Amino acid sequence: MRKNFGKVAVLLGGKSGEREVSLKSGTAVLAALKAKGIDAHAFDPRDKPLHDLEHFDRVFICLHGRFGEDGCMQGALEMLHIPYTGSGVMASSIGMDKWRTKLLWRAMNIVTPDFELVTEHADFDAIEAKLGLPLFVKPANEGSSIGISKVKSAGGLQAAYELAAKADPLVIAEKFVDGGEYTVGIIGDAAGGYTALPVIRIVPKNEFYDFEAKYLRNDTEYLCPSGLSEEKEKQIQHEALQAFKTIGCRGWGRVDFLMDAAGRHYFLEINTSPGMTDHSLVPMAARAAGISFEDLVVRILELADVG
Q1: What is the pLDDT of residue 127?
Q2: What is the tens place of the pLDDT at every residue in 278-293?
Q3: Catalytic residue among 93, 97, 256, 266
Q4: Residue 256 known to be catalytic
Q5: Residues 254, 266, 273, 280: which is the catalytic one?
Q6: Selected catalytic residue, list 141, 144, 149, 273
Q7: Which domains does the chain have, with CATH numbers?
Q8: 23, 111, 228, 286: which has the fewest Cβ within 10 Å?
Q9: Which comes out higher in pLDDT, residue 217 or 106?
């Protein structure tokens, strides 16, 4: 392994609002790589200059959010000609932007919940009337549910917008879909193919799958098998791969979707640098498919590329 991969930097931490989650992801990945005999080292770009990466042969990106998941770091690594894990510059940038992701999906007939772009000059009452209540308001370029709120009563959209706008000036309001939250992990292989991992159903004890439910609570349920029929699960896995490829993603990722009460599914967003913590969904799905955490990490590293 050491001969194949050379010296590997595990990028973790960073300076986004998801720094603490990134540190957990990176620490887990670093331990797995070392357990496989790989010459891996932690590298926090908040504290070290990027040109120090010139001493490494390959990079495993465990950064989440801005400056790590949004194409910025990917562009820097391409300038340095260092192979890195995950999607390239364009797909990372689009995938980070929930609004533009939805625009692309809608153009390709990939079903996503109805949405509206919200600005400080928006007609908040009209948006509430169009999308119905409850609805979700979220920053377009944040992850880990940062800045998200659920508007349940008339007149609540403006305050929700103001909260989301603190995290990102681009804010979307999204129609509420009440029927369950699910996710599909996707992993590539050396032959250039992709596999959709088993679907996981997420059952939070909070009102929705927020930051607390994702990272702090131990009572969130993760169901795999998901409870969907075999036919439905295969359909969603196939469409999730289409959604992944539409954005131009590569390597690995995760596509989240919702189900309504009638059993219709709606693709919600894509994650091009998913979490790798003890609560994370891609490692969970990989285990269900018979792939250990250590083997998953090595497989992702094998797919590292430049451009």
Answers
A1: 98
A2: 779 999 999 999 999 9
A3: 256
A4: yes
A5: 254
A6: 144
A7: 2-85 (3.40.50.20), 94-111+178-302 (3.30.470.20), 115-175 (3.30.1490.20)
A8: 111
A9: 106
- Which of 22, 271, 273, 280 does the annotation list as catalytic? 271
Q: How far apart are CA 195 and CA 225, in angstroms?
A: 17
Give yes or no: 271 in active site: yes
Active site residue 254: yes
Residue 27 CB coordination number (10 Å): 17
Nearest-5° Cα angle at 210, 204 to 213: 45
Which amino acid is residue 19, in one-letter code?
R
Instruction: Look up residue 147 and give its two tokens.
Output: 């800045």
Catalytic residue among 215, 233, 250, 251: 215
Helix (H, G, I), strand (E, B) or coil at 145: coil
pLDDT value at 181 more than 50: yes
- Which own/partner contact pairs does 186-190 have at CB distance under 8 Å and 24+ positions apart? 186/240, 186/241, 186/244, 186/249, 186/252, 186/253, 186/254, 186/255, 187/252, 187/282, 187/286, 187/291, 187/296, 187/299, 187/300, 188/250, 188/251, 188/252, 188/303, 189/299, 189/303, 190/302, 190/303
What does the pLDDT read at residue 1?
47
What is the number of residues in the chain? Answer: 307
- Within 10 Å of residue 267's Cβ, how many Cβ atoms? 24
pLDDT computed for residue 212 by the predictor: 64
Can 18 be counted among the known catalytic residues?
yes
Tokens of 83: 């192979």
Residue linked to tokens 């954005």: 247
The yes-or-no answer on residue 269 being catalytic is yes
Q: Is the dihedral of CA 200, 63, 241, 97 positive or negative?
A: positive
The pTM assigned to this predicted structure is: 0.93
